[in-house]
Amino acid sequence: MGVLIAVEGVDGAGKHTLVTGLVNRWATQGYRVATLTFPRYSESVTADIAAEALHGQHGDLRSSVHAMALLFALDRRDADAELRKLLSANDAVILDRYVASNAAYSAARLGQDADGEVVDWVSTLEFERFGLPVPDHHLLLDIPTDVAIGRARSRAENDASRARDHYERDHDLQERTGNVYRDLAERGWMSPWSSLGTEPDPDLADRLIAI
């Protein structure tokens, strides 16, 4: 059974870059590594409905924190069999976003901290009721909010298919979400956390693959 590593951070933090770096490093060392990105846009109907809501469709759906969180959670539940298959066939599986994203963004939208009720609700829903595997380790990309938002804006300007959604345009939400992420990391929510920049830390990478 492979190790499960969840890479987290606000929009534009550089998660894809970090995931790619880890995959390349471990592949050159001979490890079998797989990745999954959540939400699974264009693969999951619940993820697509959530994306459409974040771009102004589906009436007032976006205004419900719990409804949006449920859509993202159902996307992961539908991917459970695929995720477990990848874990059984690889030395490591790296997730670009996972359950902690739901916890952090939901808490930030409700003005709660990492000890708020919605964080408990998310963990109960996804890890207990849906039975999703708990990560062995979380990696938090902790960068300034302005830097992350600037990256997301530049990405949207250079790729018409990556238009920023309601969350990505909300500076205060991104700031609050970053604070919740830091709180989750400090508390060691669900598993150990490491906070780092956008470049893979060779020593940390070697420790993670050996879990």
UniProtKB/TrEMBL annotation:
<comment type="similarity">
    <text>Belongs to the thymidylate kinase family.</text>
</comment>
<dbReference type="GO" id="GO:0004798">
    <property type="term" value="F:dTMP kinase activity"/>
</dbReference>
<keyword id="KW-0418">Kinase</keyword>
<keyword id="KW-0808">Transferase</keyword>
<dbReference type="GO" id="GO:0005829">
    <property type="term" value="C:cytosol"/>
</dbReference>
<dbReference type="GO" id="GO:0006235">
    <property type="term" value="P:dTTP biosynthetic process"/>
</dbReference>
<keyword id="KW-0545">Nucleotide biosynthesis</keyword>
<dbReference type="InterPro" id="IPR018095">
    <property type="entry name" value="Thymidylate_kin_CS"/>
</dbReference>
<dbReference type="GO" id="GO:0006227">
    <property type="term" value="P:dUDP biosynthetic process"/>
</dbReference>
<dbReference type="InterPro" id="IPR027417">
    <property type="entry name" value="P-loop_NTPase"/>
</dbReference>
<feature type="domain" description="Thymidylate kinase-like">
    <location>
        <begin position="7"/>
        <end position="189"/>
    </location>
</feature>
<dbReference type="InterPro" id="IPR039430">
    <property type="entry name" value="Thymidylate_kin-like_dom"/>
</dbReference>
<dbReference type="GO" id="GO:0005524">
    <property type="term" value="F:ATP binding"/>
</dbReference>
<keyword id="KW-0547">Nucleotide-binding</keyword>
<keyword id="KW-0067">ATP-binding</keyword>
<dbReference type="GO" id="GO:0006233">
    <property type="term" value="P:dTDP biosynthetic process"/>
</dbReference>
<dbReference type="Pfam" id="PF02223">
    <property type="entry name" value="Thymidylate_kin"/>
</dbReference>
<protein>
    <recommendedName>
        <fullName>Thymidylate kinase</fullName>
        <ecNumber>2.7.4.9</ecNumber>
    </recommendedName>
</protein>
